[in-house]
Amino acid sequence: MSEQQQPVLKVAIIGAGPAGIYAADILHKSVTDAAVTIDIFEQLPAPYGLVRYGVAPDHPRIKAIIKALREVLDSGTVRFFGNVCYGQDITLADLREHYHAVIFATGAVKDAALDIPGIDAAYSFGAAAFVSWFDGHPDVPRYWPLDARSVAVIGNGNVALDISRVLIKHVADMLSTEIPDNVREVFAQNPIETLHIFGRKGPLQVKFTPLELRELGEVAGVDMVLDPQDFAQTDEHIENLKNTNKQILVISRIFSKWLAEQAARESAAPRQLVFHFWAKPVAVLKDEQGRVCALKIQRTKPDGSGGVIDTDVFETVPVQALYRAVGYFGSAVAGVPFDSARGVIPNTAGRVQSNTGEIMPGVYATGWIKRGPVGLIGATKSDARETLECLVVDWQRGKLWHHTADAGDPPQITSLLRERGVEYTDIEGWHRLDAAEQELGMKNQRERIKIVPRGQMVQISRAGRS
Ligand SMILES: Cc1cc2nc3c(=O)[nH]c(=O)nc-3n(C[C@H](O)[C@H](O)[C@H](O)COP(=O)(O)OP(=O)(O)OC[C@H]3O[C@@H](n4cnc5c(N)ncnc54)[C@H](O)[C@@H]3O)c2cc1C
């Protein structure tokens, strides 16, 4: 294709989480037969998605990924439009007019449901809501009722570990993080003494990663409490896997170390973290005010092939608050098909499909909204690569949206946003906000303190603009 015959390839990306930003980077590098214009639209005034609003604040090494993402946004090959919500401020019809294609990278921000009686009790929370609060998401209430001495966390994945660690940590160990001030104040009053973490399967069938599990044992002033019986009840199938699966082997060593420490312990720490394996939550019990007062579990046992079967043993564990960390769930986006059972945009290798299976030309998906809310940040890169391979092939075959925009003209999307009164922010605006957060942190001997109210974020980002 010569540049004269072919217009500049113009692509809109919805969502500035890692999936959207990696997609922009890969797109820029993979189109060699034309110039590329890439616009990223993000509903929040700040980029980075769950890396900023999901990853725990005491995990600064993960936050370092932000540096790599920032380099893409700063590279001059991408335009960032913050505070622009697709479906509200811009529509699919608008994008069709201004671009050749759109990539949806809208992620998953809601909690998956856990359908057990009583889950609607007061003080029964979803992990996503709690994470959004302590990570300073601008769209969630700023108050969190942290007054329980005994708390249940349901789930055996890394999000369950994250929220357990944050709930059980003493506030002194959170002081150096970027948590907003009001979050710090609430943590300072946290009266928690015991945190119970429940998993339906056995200790070697957890979805924790070894690094995160080990880290839990390093939290100061907290004992790890295990039931040796849970380890006696082994699944031979899983035991055998220890020989081939390094992750299971390491997890087994961590638990063995904790069991040995527990046996030798002479006095108890102020806070206890109690693991309950082979424990399937079956009901949340409420007190007269409708508040969580206990979790009822049904004991399970191994089925010999990696699964579990129910026993007829039930137990009740008194707690005053409960957090379910049983997964995240994607939300539908306007004008695009949605698989409401899986919480994803239906697609084949990133090409979006209608509900009857036909490919929608020019419409792509990547990241958690493409394949569901599992996997680490790194996985969104390979995801984006697959989606971009399809987009580039479709471009070369002339299968994207066609329009009459002249090659080299920047899309007139900024005029459209202005006409609609959308207070969009740009990359310079994000730099201003970023600098303001760092300055706030410096004044308090911290690297950064997040600015939370959306109005304030927008005001700082748009300072000096007409
Ligand atoms: C609590 C938690 C902790 C985690 N910790 C780690 C960790 O320590 N290490 C690790 O590797 N991974 C971690 N992960 C996983 C990691 O966050 C994900 O793999 C990754 O963020 C998924 O990227 P994404 O871009 O698909 O989605 P997201 O990160 O969710 O980004 C989606 C973006 O799209 C935007 N958006 C949504 N709808 C619209 C719309 N209508 N218009 C405009 N913009 C929109 C959102 O605001 C968001 O910025 C964690 C996940 C969670 C939930």
For this entry, give a set of tags.
single chain; 466 residues; alpha/beta; Rossmann fold; FAD/NAD(P)-binding domain; 2 domains; six-stranded parallel β-sheet; 20% strand; globular; binds flavin-adenine dinucleotide
Quick take:
The chain is α/β, with parallel strands linked by helices and 466 residues long. The chain has 2 domains: 9-109 and 330-424, Rossmann fold (3-Layer(aba) Sandwich); 111-327, FAD/NAD(P)-binding domain (3-Layer(bba) Sandwich), CATH 3.50.50.
Describe the structure.
The protein has 17 helices and 18 strands. Helix 1 packs across helix 14, helix 9 (210-217) packs parallel to helix 12 (246-264) and helix 16 (427-443) crosses helix 17 (454-461). The chain has helices spanning 18-30, 49-53, 60-63, 65-74, 92-98, 127-134, 158-168, 181-188, 210-217, 228-232, 236-241, 246-264, 368-371, 379-396, 413-419, 427-443, 454-461, and strands spanning 9-14, 36-41, 78-81, 101-104, 110-111, 124-126, 150-154, 194-198, 222-225, 271-276, 279-286, 292-302, 308-318, 321-324, 328-329, 347-348, 351-353, 359-365. A hairpin with a 5-residue loop joins strand 11 and strand 12 (292-302). The protein folds into two domains: 9-109 and 330-424, NAD(P)-binding Rossmann-like Domain (Rossmann fold, 3-Layer(aba) Sandwich); 111-327, FAD/NAD(P)-binding domain, CATH 3.50.50. The two termini are 41 Å apart. With 466 residues, the protein is α/β, with parallel strands linked by helices. The chain is globular and about 70 Å long. The strands form four sheets. The protein has a seven-stranded mixed sheet with strand order 3-2-1-4-18-17-16, with helices on both faces. The protein has a six-stranded parallel sheet with strand order 6-14-7-8-10-9. A three-stranded antiparallel sheet has the order 11-12-13, with no helix packed on it. The structure holds flavin-adenine dinucleotide. Flavin-adenine dinucleotide binds at residues 14-20, 41-44, 49-51, 54-55, 59, 62, 85-87, 105-107, 109, 131, 159, 162, 328, 333, 367-368, 375-377, 380.
